[in-house]
Design a protein that fits this description.
Length: 210
């Protein structure tokens, strides 16, 4: 049996943080991004509006600062190991995140078969945000379907890993899901749940015999 493992980024692969927070930390703008994150979580900002305000906030963001944010993020242990094992089994792994694609796509170098994030302007920002390129929770399902078609699989072959309500649509779509460091709202929707700092342990809940 071949499967497609779908991983969220913020709060899931990155423990207790998010791409936007880590980028803002590099710029000394943690309080400002915290306000935007809280407004987004409360539903006062749409994903496109959050992106527009973050682009304004980050101003002259550089590739070096993005790289430093990526390298310094509090990643779960064992991500590369899990993805290597998935691929060794002939299965697939992908990341789908609402965060900027220029951050998410760096995970291709860690062994993901695909990495999809929102289409933000290139760094350094010279163009405005295109709202059509900014993902939302429903887009995660659409991208999962596109990946299934690409890999010759179906929703029935998918395993989803996530931590927040932005993952709820995907959890409702696939047969197996793992809530990773999630609160009870998301944990109650999942087939399995894991609390800890090692993705290998979360993966063991669904990996089965080798």
């Amino acid at each position: 049996m071949s499967r497609l493992h779908l991983f969220d980024l913020d709060g899931t692969l990155i423990h207790g943080s998010a791409a936007a927070i880590e980028i803002s930390r590099q710029l000394g703008l943690e309080p400002e991004i915290g306000e935007l994150e809280r407004a987004f979580a409360a539903g006062r900002l749409t994903p496109p509006r959050f992106a527009e305000l973050a682009v304004e906030l980050w101003g002259e963001l550089t590739e070096a600062e993005v790289a430093a944010a990526f390298e310094g993020a509090p990643w779960l242990a064992g991500i590369r190991d899990v993805w290597a094992e998935i691929r060794a089994r002939g299965e697939r792994c992908a990341v789908i995140s609402l965060s900027p694609g220029f951050f998410v796509e760096r995970l291709l170098d860690w062994g993901a078969d695909a990495a999809h994030g929102s289409l933000w302007p290139s760094v350094p920002f010279r163009d405005p945000v295109d709202p059509a390129g900014i993902l939302d929770a429903a887009a995660k399902v659409r991208i999962a379907d596109e990946l299934c078609a690409r890999f010759g699989l179906t929703r029935a072959d998918c395993v989803a890993y996530g931590d927040s309500m932005s993952d709820a649509w995907l959890f409702a779509t696939v047969p197996v899901s793992v809530a990773v460091n999630a609160d009870h709202h998301v944990r109650d929707l999942a087939s399995h749940h894991y609390t800890g700092l090692d993705l290998r342990a979360a993966y063991e809940l669904v990996s089965g015999p080798a």
